[in-house]
Recover the amino acids of this structure.
C-alpha cells in the first residue's frame, strides 16, 4: 500500500482541485480547536466534490458495478484550526497502482487557511476498487483514472 | 400529531429506562457547551437501546416489514451540558395514537446530570410506523406497543 | 416562548436568506436517509452564515458582551433527504419578543430540495440573548434585530 | 515521530484497557458501513476513558498546566463495521519518546468485533505534551507516563 511522505505533501502546490469551506461551529471540540477526526470529514467532502466533477457522482456510483472502500486514512496536524477559520481543502496528489491497470489509489490532501495561506494539515486516504458483487479487485474506470492522474501533474 | 407539554416532561420521574453516557469531547461546540443537536443524538442512542431491550433491535428491524421514520423532533435546553458531565437520558413517556391499533408514538425524554440530578433538557420524538414496501401506516407490533406503554406507567 | 405553527412555516416563501448545501455522505444514517438531528446542524450552519452577513460573525460574537444560547429547537420532517440531494436551507421568519426591546428570537427555517423544489423539512430555534457575564437578559443589538426583522417581511 | 507498524498492531493482545461500544445508527454512511473518520472518534472516546482511569480526567486536564494536542492520527480498515455490531476499542500499545523525560506518546488501538472477535481496524494517535502557556514541550506527568507504559507490557 503506497503512502506519501508527510513532507512531500506539505510542499505540493494547491493544484487544480480545492474545496473551500468554513470550520463549523459544531466541529470544534472541548479544547476549542477542530476535532482531529473532522479534518478527515472535510477531506472526504472534497473527495465527493472531486468525484462529481470527474463525472462519477458518488451517490450514483454507490449503485454501480464497483465500490471503493477506504482501507487507510491518516492526517498530520500542523496548526490548529478554529471556528471562524475559512480553509481550502485541496486534492494535491494521487498515486495509482499497479501501474498497469491500477486498482488502488492513494489521494493526498493539503489543508490551508484562506487569507494567510498557512498550512494547517496534510492527509491521505487509500481507496481500493472492488467489484460490488464479488469484492474482487477491479480496474479503476479509465476516465476516473485520468482525472486522478491529473491531480499529480 | 400529539406533543407533550414541556413542563409535563420536566415533572415526570426518570422511570424504568435510562441510558447513562458521558458528554463527549467532540460533541461540544465553539461556545464550550454541548451542541444542541447532539442532545437529540443522545436521545436516539437511548431509543436504540430501548428497542433492543424491548426485543426489536433496530438493526434487525431495518430489514423487516415496517419502518418507523421520525416526523417530528424537539428539545428544550434547561441547563448547559459540558464535557466531563455524566448524564442519564431517560425515556419517560410514550403517547400512542390512535387508541385503537396505534400507528404513531410520541416518546418523551428527560436528560439529567448524574451526581446532582440537575435537569438539563427534555425532548420528544414522533415516530410513524409504516409498511416498508407500501409506506402505508401499519399498527405498532403488539409487544413493542406494550413496552412503549409501560414507559408511561 | 413563541413558536411558529408548522403549517405556517411550510407556506412561507424562501425569502432573502438561503444557504445551499449538499446532503453529506456521512450525515446519512443506517436507514439510508439523513439522520434527523443533522437537519438541525444544517439549520445552524445557515444561522451562522446569516449572522456573518448581518455583521455579527459568531466567532467574534463569542468573545463579545452577549451570548445567545438556544433554549428550544424543533424540526418537522416532511420528505426524506438522501445523499446526493442538494438542498436550500432558508431562514424564512423571525419572531422577536418582547415587542419593546426584544431579548428573544424564534427563527423559522424551511428546507427544500433544489431542482424539484420539494419541501423536505421545516424547523425553528429559539435564542435568548443574555449578558455574557451576568447571564441576565439583554436586548438584541439594534442592527442584528433589524436583520432578523427583515427575514419576516 | 514514532509510528507503529500496522501488522504489529494487528498482532498485539487486547490487553488491559478496552472500551466496549455499539456502532451507532448515525455513524454509518451512505455506503452502509461506519464512516471511516468515526473510527477515530471511537478511539478518542477510549483514550478519554483511559485518561480518567489513569487519574487525569481530560475535562480537568484541559484547565491544567499542560495540553497534549494530536499531531498525527491514522487508521487501517480491515473489515467493515455496521450498525448493530458491538465492538471493543482497545489501547494496545504506547511508545514514549525521548526515552529520558518523554514528551510525546504514540498510542496504538485495536478494534475488534465482540462476539466473533474479528479484527476490524487498527489505529494510532500521536500526542505531544506542551505547556499550556508557552506551547513548549513539557514532560508527561510521571503517573500518566506509567499508565501509558503499562499499556505495552
Amino acid at each position: 500500500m503506497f503512502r506519501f511522505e508527510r513532507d512531500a505533501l506539505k510542499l505540493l502546490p494547491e493544484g487544480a482541485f480545492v474545496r473551500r469551506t468554513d470550520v463549523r461551529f459544531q466541529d470544534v471540540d472541548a479544547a476549542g480547536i477542530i476535532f482531529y477526526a473532522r479534518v478527515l470529514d472535510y477531506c472526504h467532502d472534497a473527495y465527493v466534490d472531486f468525484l462529481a466533477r470527474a463525472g462519477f457522482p458518488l451517490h450514483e456510483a454507490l449503485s454501480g458495478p464497483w465500490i471503493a472502500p477506504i482501507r487507510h486514512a491518516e492526517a498530520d496536524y500542523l496548526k490548529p484550526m478554529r471556528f471562524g477559520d475559512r480553509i481550502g481543502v485541496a486534492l494535491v496528489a494521487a498515486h495509482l497502482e499497479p501501474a498497469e491497470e491500477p486498482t488502488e489509489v492513494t489521494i493526498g490532501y493539503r489543508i490551508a487557511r484562506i487569507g494567510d495561506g498557512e498550512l494547517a494539515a496534510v492527509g491521505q486516504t487509500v481507496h481500493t476498487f472492488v467489484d460490488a458483487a464479488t469484492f474482487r479487485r477491479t480496474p479503476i474506470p479509465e476516465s476516473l483514472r485520468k482525472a486522478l492522474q491529473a491531480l499529480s501533474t
Remarks:
- The helical segments of chain B are 6-11, 36-53, 58-61, 142-151.
